[in-house]
Amino acid sequence: MFRSEYADVPAIELPIHDAVLGRAAEFGDAPALIDAVDGTTVTYEQLDRFHRRLAAAFADAGVRKGDVLALHSPNTIAFPTAFYAATRAGATVTTVHPLATAEELGKQLRDCAARWVVTVSPLLQTARAAAELAGGIKEIFVCDSAPGHRSLIDMLASAAPEPRIAIDPAEDVAALPYSSGTTGTPKGVMLTHRSIATNLAQLQPLMPFHPGDRILAVLPFFHIYGLTALMNGPLRQGATVVVLPRFDLDIFLAAIEEHRITGLFVAPPIVLALAKHPKVAQYDLSSLKYIISAAAPLDAATAEACSRRLQLPPVGQAYGMTELSPGTHVVPRDAVDPPPGTVGKLIPRTEMRILSLDDPAKDVGVGESGEIAIRGPQVMKGYLGRPDATAAMIDENGWLHTGDVGHVDADGWLFVVDRVKELIKYKGFQVAPAELEALLLTHPGIADAAVIGVYDDANNEVPHAYVVRQPTAPDLTENEILMYVAEHVAPYKRVRAVHFIDGVPRAASGKILRRELRADAAQQREGAS
Questions:
Q1: β-pairing verdict for 263-266 and 214-217
Q2: Would you list the DSSP string of 204-229?
Q3: Which of 90, 361, 495, 527 could lock onto 165 through a cystine, CB 3.0 to 4.6 A?
Q4: Please, what CATH class does the domain formed by 2-405 belong to?
Q5: What is the mean pLDDT of residues 67-94?
Q6: Are 153 and 145 in contact (CB under 8 A)?
Q7: Residue 507 confidence (pLDDT)
Q8: Percent of the chain at pLDDT above 70?
Q9: What pLDDT score was predicted for residue 510?
């Protein structure tokens, strides 16, 4: 068993809004949030006041403790206000990918029995359609303005009393992001106020923020990585969060230059762009002090090329997953010459085992690879309404089995080398093969299908489908299938290539033998090169 070398931190027994904004008065007029596009600024004093007024308006509208509110929005300076207002009113916030289709959003709303939706006017049509599909939605609010819908801006003028809700941080669920876990379709991950707040305290010694720091929020707040590293973490410690609604390389680079960004938390594709894209040379990025990459594996060569080009310390990595609130490892900001490719060291109050791939009841030693299992206060409460899936993920002794394969060196550095799980990670977003396979099988011309992740020329893992045609559809084309999938899922889940085969390889149990398909894909790639 491996234990953190850092001193334990106490559990944070506070609601997440108090855990993050408890020092807002101290930070006062310092900028908490800045819109990177138009420069609109929200100070700490305003953020504290605004979220309390909005909480009062939510409560006045009928939001009650235990209700689920869906936050369906790209990154905006209104997102944190809506999040903390909802939790202060006693609600659980389920965060939603802004590119989700009405069908996908409707499934999520129905699964978590959401009663309220907060969205933005460009996404209103999708939100309305999803609400109709799900049923049970009492009201859709908008962050900006739209006819027939209450605006959060107008609701800030509410004279209703601030709600005083009794919250049990250890039991009450603050956030309900959706994750596919190690396999299968997305499930609601119940993260309590305590698990999220304590994880912030666990990360702080290795990944501190300070007043005056400027963090660029380019990764989405709806994703647990963005929610922790770009919203809760910086705001808890008085830093300034500069908010971008989406990634565009020129706008991203211009924001670093204009707002004198000091820290970046990104995914590997952005590190690759910073390392290689010619546009990088056109901007002054000298304000940057560090870069941390997470959400997917980053190869050591790309990391080294990025830090060398920008004349920065080595690009650090971090490791975790939604079910872990999310962090378990990070390369400390003050680390001297961390080994290339490491995802870091165990954060405080966290234990880890490396389990034998041949006999999961046995642990392996230093330098040996096995499945990573984690135990600590950041482990999720469980999957919403899925006790069997929870039991499959967290054993009777509290160890969460990550599905990732890694090894630890003699100095305690973790290296993640593979995945037991079958998830595809496209630019940090999880794509469940089972979800795409289920969709493909609804096409009348498809008899069977399997989906695997294949790395493209930009080193992104993308979904590739292996399809068996129905005898009645011998002329079914790749393009027809690509369009069919694109109509039903968010862009990041789209199948990028289709290979027609006579039969999907399966074990006697019926489980798809994806390793055979991966071998086939590797052969095809070698043949093409």
A1: parallel
A2: TTTS---TT-EEEE-S-TTSHHHIII
A3: 90
A4: alpha beta
A5: 98
A6: yes
A7: 61
A8: 98
A9: 61
Tokens in use for 208?
């501190």
Amino acid at 21: L
Question: CA distances (Å), 491 to each of 100, 101, 281, 462, 483, in order?
Answer: 8, 9, 30, 11, 11
Rounded CA-CA distance 427/462 in Å is 9
Helix (H) or strand (E) holding 188: strand 187-192
Report the distance separating Cα 6 and Cα 106, nearest Å.
Answer: 43
| Cβ atoms < 10 Å from Cβ of 367 | 11
Rounded CA-CA distance 65/57 in Å is 14
What is the distance between the alpha carbons of residues 363 and 529, in angstroms, rounded to a whole number?
A: 40
**Closest C-alpha among 105, 47, 97 to residue 77:** 47
* Residue count (the chain): 529
Question: Do 2-405 and 425-528 share a fold?
Answer: no
* Neighbour count for residue 442 (Cβ, 10 Å): 9
CA separation, residue 474 to residues 451, 467, 470, 478, 501 (Å): 20, 12, 7, 12, 12
Whole-prediction pTM: 0.87
Among 294, 306, 272, which Cα is nearest to 457's?
Answer: 272
Q: What is the pLDDT of residue 414?
A: 98
Please enumerate in sequence order all residues whose Cβ is within 8 A of that of 249, keeping only pairs 6 or more positions apart, or say none: 273, 277, 279
Residue 50: strand, helix, or coil: helix
Separation of alpha carbons 142 and 475, rounded Å: 46
- Inter-axis angle of helices 268-276 and 300-310, to 10 degrees? 50
Could you tell me the two tokens for 260? 């004198």
- Hey, where are the domains in the chain? 2-405, 425-528
* 34 DSSP β-pair partners: 41, 242
CA distances from 305 to 257, 277, 298, 325, 374 (A): 20, 11, 12, 30, 32
Distance between CA 274 and CA 307 in Å, rounded? 9
CATH T-level topology, domain 425-528: GMP Synthetase; Chain A, domain 3 (3.30.300)
Q: How far apart are CA 489 and CA 188, in angstroms?
A: 18
State the pLDDT confidence band at 358, using cuts at 50, 70 and 90.
confident
Residue 509 pLDDT: 47
In terms of Cα–Cα distance, which of 171, 172, 176, 180 is closest to 190? 176
List 450's β-bridge partners, or say none: 466
Q: Are strands 116-119 and 139-142 parallel, antiparallel or unpaired?
A: parallel
- Alpha carbons 488 and 102: distance in angstroms, whole number: 9
Give the range among 36-45, 207-216, 294-303, 465-474 with minimum mean pLDDT.
Answer: 294-303
Percent of the chain whose pLDDT exceeds 90: 83
Confidence of residue 423 (pLDDT cuts 50, 70, 90): confident
The arithmetic mean of pLDDT across residues 79-99, rounded, is 97
What is the structure's pLDDT at 513?
Answer: 82
For residues 425 and 319, give the distance between their C-alpha atoms in angstroms, rounded to a whole number: 14
CB 312 within 8 A of CB 288: yes
Are the beta carbons of 467 and 501 closer than 8 angstroms? yes
Residue 500 has pLDDT above 90, yes or no: yes
